[in-house]
Design a protein that fits this description.
Blueprint (H helix, E strand, L loop, with lengths): L15 E5 L3 H11 L5 E8 L3 H13 L6 E5 L12 E8 L5 H13 L7 E4 H5 L14 E2 L1
Antiparallel strand pairs: 1-3, 2-4, 2-5, 3-4, 5-6
């Protein structure tokens, strides 16, 4: 990681660090205009000791346009929605959770980056409704691959 880049394992100024695809705004505008803006995200859970390395791979792939439209990683700042303070979550966003081909394309790219275990995919709609494992909700995932 560059010196100017915060490290998720130690950063405590914000709950998340973000990365954006080069075409994020164009994709957002197109999907909104077409009425297909239904974002969701793959949830990659990573230990504190591995988060900086995994985040760097995902950040670089997102900024190179190989993953979804954006990504974020939880930081060391304590978050009341976290179910395990020793784990971080990396969210990799796609613009339309109903576009299974695109959602799975991003999943395959995550596999190429070394994320090989099964991971859940959650719609932002469910997030906005307050559906979190930490608040007792179950079976939230739209996909699990």
């Amino acid at each position: 990681m560059g010196e100017e880049e915060p490290r998720p394992s130690t950063w405590e100024k914000d709950y998340y660090i973000h990365a954006h695809a080069p075409n994020e705004q164009r994709v957002f505008s197109g999907y909104k205009r077409e009425g297909r803006w239904r974002p969701g995200k793959w949830l990659v859970f990573v230990s504190r000791k591995d988060v900086d390395e995994v985040w760097e791979k995902i950040r670089a792939a997102t900024e190179a346009g190989r993953l979804g439209i954006s990504a974020k990683v939880s930081t060391a700042k304590p978050n009341p929605l976290s179910t395990n303070p020793e784990k971080h979550v990396i969210c990799v966003y796609t613009p339309d959770w109903t576009d299974e081909a695109d959602v799975m394309r991003v999943r395959e790219e995550l596999r190429r980056l070394g994320i090989t275990g099964k991971i859940p995919y959650k719609s932002d709609e469910d997030t906005l409704k307050g559906k979190y494992a930490a608040t007792g909700h179950r079976r939230i995932a739209k996909y699990y691959a």
